[in-house]
Structures are given as structure tokens and as C-alpha cells.
Amino acid sequence: IRGMMAAPPAKAKDEDTITMNNLDPRTLLNKPLTSPVTRIGGFPWRVRVDASICNNYLHVTLICDKSTESELWWCKGVTIITIFGGNPDTNRYYFDLASWDQKWTSFVA
To answer: Which SUPFAM superfamilies match (predicted)?
Structure first.
């Protein structure tokens, strides 16, 4: 009898990049744009971008939503938001997200 072992599961990535290219603020006024899910540290992450109608702000929302996988969850992380083609500033934000907070973390760029 010969036994076969399955390959060990891939280690969850602790960091990754979610890139959204060619964002036109005029189209974001009508409908926000949401990135595909990127799994980082085993959590499903998305970025949502929309433009403000009343001023010249671009709103970036970081979403960690495990609600379809678990009733209680908690995410902790760091994000760096870089906007190319405009102000060259890079901003770093630290955050905690939890299912019981019922809120998302938004950043205004």
C-alpha cells in the first residue's frame, strides 16, 4: 500500500498590492468603482473609489469583509495609498476593522 500526501496548503500572503488604474473622476461621480477581491492574510480585501460631487475629493475606502465566511471577524493592517499623476504624496494609515463595528475605513485623498 502506497500513501500519497497532498501538497501543503500555500501560505497566506501577509501583504499584497491592489491596483486600480486609469480612474477618471468624471465616471466615478455616477458610480463608485470597486476592485476585485484580493486575499491578504486569509482575509478578502477590496478597495472602493468614488468621487465627491460637492468638492474635489477622491474617496478611497478599504473593505475587509468576512461576513460571508464568519459571523465574527477582526482585521488589522496598514495601507499605503499612492495616487500617481496628481499629488505625489504617499499616505500610510493604520486601522482595525471588526464585524461588530459595522463600518468601513475610508480615506480621503
So the answer is: TRAF domain-like (SSF49599)
Query: Is CATH 1.10.3720.10 the classification given to domain 25-108?
Result: no
> Please, which pLDDT band fits residue 41 given cuts at 50, 70 and 90?
confident
Q: Output b/e per residue, 8-43; b: 16+ Cβ within 10 A.
A: eeeeeeeeeeeeeeeeeeeebeeeeeeeeeeebeeb
Q: Give per-residue pLDDT as tens, 55-99.
A: 667 777 777 766 666 666 666 666 666 666 655 555 666 656 555
CA distance 107 to 39: 20
Give the type of residue at 48.
Answer: R
* Every domain of the chain and the residues it spans: 25-108
In whole angstroms, give the CA distance from residue 77 to residue 93: 9
Q: What is the DSSP letter of 25?
A: H
What is the pLDDT of the chain when averaged over all its residues?
65
| Other C-beta atoms lying within 10 Å of the C-beta of residue 46 | 16
- Cβ(32)–Cβ(22) under 8 Å? no
